[in-house]
Amino acid sequence: MDHPLELLFHNMKPSAELKKLIRERTEWLEKLDQHIIRCRVTVDLPKRAHRTGNFPEVHIEAQVPGQSLRVSHKHDHSGDVLTAVHNAFDAIAIQVKKYKARKAGRVKQHELPEGTATE
Question: What fold is seen in the domain 6-104?
Answer without folding.
Answer: Double Stranded RNA Binding Domain (3.30.160)
